[in-house]
Automatic annotation (TrEMBL):
Domain Rho termination factor-like N-terminal: 48-76
Name under which the protein is recorded: Rho termination factor N-terminal domain-containing protein
Region (Disordered) residue spans: 23-42
Entry superkingdom: Bacteria
Amino acid sequence: MPNPRIKNEDHYQALLEKGYSKEKAARIANTPDSGVKGGKAKKYEEWTKKELYQQAKNVGIQGRSKMKKKELIDSLRNN
């Protein structure tokens, strides 16, 4: 049964099959343009701190309110 919290269920399932954790697969599948090929997403370094904070909030990163921009980027990449 599809999870209503997952925005792109097909992409989520494909990531699980590749061995991604449920948390990481959900985070990727819930991002805007999920599953769209072409590398059009901006690099985190091009995001504002506010955008990074919101993404960290969306994926449940703890301690994000005290993080600097570089720390938010590192947490998003390694979570």
